[in-house]
Amino acid sequence: MDILIPILAAAVRSGTPILYATLGEILTEKSGVLNLGLEGIMLMGAFTGFAVSMYTGNPWIAIAASFLVGMIITSIHGFLCITMGANQVVSGLALTMAGTGASSLLGRNFIGETITGLGKMHLPFLSEIPFIGPILFDHDPLVYISYFLVLFMCFFLSFTKSGLSLRAVGDSPRSADSVGISVVRTRYFYTLIGGGIVAIGGAYMSVAYTKMWGDLMTAGRGWIAVALVIFAIWHPMRAAFGAYLFGGVEAFQLRLQAAGTTIPTPLLMMLPYILTITVLLVISIREGKGLIFEAPSSLGQPFYREERE
Amino acid sequence: MSRNILSPLVRMEGITKTFAGFVANSQIDFDVKNGEVHSLLGENGAGKTTLMNILSGLYIQDEGNIWIHDELREFRSPRDAILSGIGMVHQHFMLVPSMTVWENMVLGLKDLPSILPKKEIIGQMESLSSRYGLHVEPEARIWQLSIGEQQRVSILKVLFRKAELLILDEPTAVLTPQEADNLFKTVHQMKAEGHGIVFISHKLNEVTALSDRVTILRKGKRIGTVNTSDTTQENLAEMMVGKRVSFNITKRPQKPGKISMEIRDLSVNNDRGLPAVRDLCLQLREGEILGIAGIAGNGQQELCEAMVGLRKVEAGEMYINQIRIQKADPKSMISQGVRYIPADRKGTGLVPNMNVQENSILKNYWQKPVSRGITIDWNVVYKLASSIVRKFNVDTPSLSTPVRNLSGGNLQKLMLGRELSDEPPVIIAVHPTWGLDVAATGFVRDTILNERDKGASILLVSEDLDELVAMSDRLAVMHKGRFMGITDEPETLSREALGLMMAGIAHEDILQRDEGKGS
Ligand SMILES: Nc1ncnc2c1ncn2[C@@H]1O[C@H](COP(=O)(O)OP(=O)(O)O)[C@@H](O)[C@H]1O
Ligand SMILES: [Mg+2]
Known about the structure:
The complex is a heterodimer of chains A (about 300) and B (about 525).
Chain A: H1 4-30, H2 38-56, H3 59-83, H4 88-107, E1 121-122, H5 132-136, E2 138-139, H6 141-159, H7 161-171, H8 173-178, H9 183-209, H10 221-231, H11 236-258, H12 265-287
Antiparallel strand pairs in A: 1-2
Helix pairs in contact in A: 1-6, 1-9, 1-10, 1-11, 2-3, 2-4, 2-9, 2-10, 3-4, 3-9, 6-7, 7-9, 10-11, 10-12, 11-12
Chain B: E1 10-19, E2 22-32, E3 37-41, H1 48-55, E4 63-68, E5 71-73, H2 78-83, E6 86-89, H3 101-106, H4 118-132, H5 147-160, E7 165-169, H6 177-192, E8 196-201, H7 204-210, E9 213-218, E10 221-227, H8 233-241, E11 259-269, E12 275-285, E13 288-293, H9 300-307, E14 313-320, E15 323-324, H10 330-335, E16 338-341, H11 345-349, H12 356-360, E17 371-372, E18 375-376, H13 378-391, H14 408-420, E19 426-430, H15 438-453, E20 457-461, H16 465-471, E21 474-479, E22 482-487, H17 495-502, H18 507-518
Parallel strand pairs in B: 3-8, 3-9, 6-7, 7-8, 13-20, 13-21, 16-19, 19-20
Antiparallel strand pairs in B: 1-2, 1-4, 4-5, 9-10, 11-12, 11-14, 14-15, 17-18, 21-22
Adenosine-5'-diphosphate sits at the interface of chains B and A.
């Protein structure tokens, strides 16, 4: 029990960046737009968060700035894919490369600097619940916001008017269009919001998790998020499960490393990636298709009203 | 409906619409009054859907104006049309398959609270349902519904939005005769309530039975508008097609031979993994056409795909010339002489981006003489393709034209040429004349009948009941993956009996009922 609590608490912390990225991508993909630029957006989010934090000393301004930068970068993808009908895979990959490169370049002078970053916030009462409390409610506010986001997205997609429109645009843009929903506007909106949330995932890495800047510090978490979206069959709850699984294995292998095991370090570092993918793959194969939360049928396809399918 | 009833509900004038140079609508005038059913009659491709898509804001016309109750309107999106009281039930329903009926009902409605009041919505919907006799389960998901039910949802959806004008695009194409009758009742009721209704069809009997006026379109032009009471079906047919046409299909007497393909207790699943064909048995004899009637989605497609090796057989056996097929994959079925004319010509049938030559060898590129080991002998291909193009009158600019540029009729001819040029023993044809003009339809029918006379065993799936009855030597009716009956004398089967069988009542039961009535 006593060894388990710190590992599980660490799982939540190190799963949070992936969770944000996955939730952002779920929103984007629900509208029918595939964004493979997550890794690039996360890195730019991480850099922006760190830099703004350093200059302003205020982590919240830093996070808001990351969100904004995420939206701005993603708007390029939005324009290419939604307005110009470009290939979404190519555009997304370009975004990843551009974001990765830009963050390395801009971040050169920040290596080695430190920031105060986002501190812990004990939640009264909740953090005192035995076992659950220290695992879930003894973190920084961004973690709590991510819990809220998960619940809110489930509710939003299932029960609200706007959620209905979003699902319709992703699943059957032609039907949505025929009842007067603007496919283009809906896609832009959720692609940009999604991109902003992904960037917060990156910012979490630098502002809350490590409180430093390292080149390529997201280390492929953007790609894990892309895969998580699929294995979570576009369901926010399952995204949380996948993200924390990754975080848990990550925390566990770090402890193993610290304890000085004989297993080679590179092998240990591979562990969270391999395990997360494997577990989710098995689950998603066994459960087959969900209903509300299944793949948006128009994912990756541009929409033009007067064109026939 | 408090507006001025005397002014036409909708008036369209001089509507022209082109798609990349192709004129789909040219200078068309059209109007509908309240309490009137106005039919749009025309062959496939005449431009009926295009005209109504303009009226519902999906397409923007190049020229022409639209007035609603004498007020000039400019529709820039479907939203504008909906706000003007126009509702369209599209031929391919605009429903979101993964959503429930009630969710589709309110999709896109602005004047709803942010959190959807499910109970109220369902209540409103059910009162509409019972008023118009359009019953559907509000919590069912669209993909679980039959086509007939989906149509009811689509009509309800339009009524839910308080549409004054209802456009029904070929609504009966997917219905049994009985379901169509119910639809007509609903239409009459809406008409009596003062709605205007546009009824799109290419079926003359329905148009004359249902409408007050008919506007005939041909090749994008308006040929005329007539009062239904002043005209005859022959007259309408002539206006629609342009020249007098005979609907006769001549078929020589049958000389059925031995069984060439047989299926025993076949079960096949659909794409969702649910049973589509259930314990089905059938025999195809040499020199006969076995027709399969049924509403789309009752397993016809899956049956055909299983027979050509494109779909996994869950249970049961298939035999060709009394020999059991061990491995039913497309390649082995092709080499056993089973040929396939699929419904989706540009999907399963041909590769749109490949040219005529390449498409004509899709089914024998691995065999001599087309194949020379690992390379292809393009001289042989050229000869083969040009002989297909010549024999089957394929109208193509050249052999190296990508087939996506060919019209529907020419695509079909090219496919027939590829499938039939080596006198195959078994032919599976699905909707072979769907969407073709009169000349191409005649050509396709003649070609298929010709193969029958030469001794081929043919399975024919079609939605055109006249075609099926006239061409088939035997006719089976399929419902939920089973045959409801199979007859050796298709001509003697009444329309009513066919309809009942399509709705799932077994042939014997119908015969018994008729006897009961007679005595
Ligand atoms: N969105 C579109 N893009 C290109 N061509 C189209 C489009 N819609 C219709 N057409 C063409 O316009 C013609 C008329 O089509 P349509 O209005 O669907 O005919 P109908 O409904 O009478 O069968 C057809 O030749 C069709 O190929
Ligand atoms: Mg049409």
